[in-house]
Specification:
The chain is of the alpha/beta class and 203 residues long. It has six helices and nine strands. The protein has a four-stranded parallel β-sheet with strand order 7-4-8-9. A three-stranded antiparallel β-sheet has the order 1-2-3, with helices on one face. A two-stranded antiparallel ribbon has the order 5-6. It is globular. It starts with a strand and ends with a helix.
Length: 203
């Protein structure tokens, strides 16, 4: 039985333009398409940044916010049923304007085990100074730790390979030791703002 997942991704060159990414799930395989090639929309032969970033690196900041739940579900399927073309050369990570300030860093190219950015994860670690003010109150890292525990999350003071998320001041900033370990183990790194807006609020 075939299932189809479709979501919109901002163009890498113009924020006012978006392209539809479509994933077809079959019994034992899946196929992914993007309409960014105007001459041949949804071509089977193409692979692009609009596909790679959200489906294989869990960078959901480039997806329209109302489509992100669909993109998350599609990424779980894609990572287990589709192989990135060997000829693909990733260049989108340097496009800071496209990614935005709070994008997720997910995996490295040379990996064999893929974790998914599931909202059902329950173990996190906070690092760095949040540098955030909420309702006129400056929030410290301890405030975020206490808040996470109240919501039922297990909080690790030290880095652990079993983490679901590593929360830092700004994903994509200068790498700390914890961030380097997270990248090596394919653990999603997200900002405090993403943690509040997209993860904590859904628990």
């Amino acid at each position: 039985m075939e299932k189809v997942f479709e979501f919109r991704v901002r163009s890498t060159s113009c924020e006012k333009i978006f392209y539809k990414v479509r994933l077809h799930q079959f019994l034992k395989r899946c196929e992914v398409y993007c309409e960014c090639h105007q001459k041949n929309p949804f071509s089977k032969k193409q692979f692009c940044s609009h596909i790679d970033a959200p489906l294989f690196k869990n960078c959901f900041s480039v997806v329209f916010e109302e489509d992100r739940d669909v993109a998350i579900e599609a990424s779980k399927i894609a990572q287990n049923g589709f192989k990135i073309p060997k000829s693909w050369k990733e260049t989108w990570r340097t496009n800071k304007k496209w990614l935005g300030p709070d994008y997720q860093i997910f995996d490295k190219k040379e990996t064999t085990h893929v974790r998914t950015s599931s909202l059902s994860g329950r173990k996190v670690c906070f690092t760095g100074d949040p540098k955030m003010t909420i309702n006129h109150k400056k929030f410290s890292r301890r405030d975020f730790i206490d808040q996470a525990k109240e919501k039922g999350w297990e909080v690790s003071e030290e880095f652990s390979g079993s983490l679901d998320y590593l929360i830092c001041h700004q994903a994509g900033s200068k790498e700390s030791t914890k961030m380097k370990h997270a990248l090596q183990l394919n653990i999603p790194i997200i900002s405090y703002q993403i943690w509040i807006d997209q993860i904590l609020c859904k628990v």
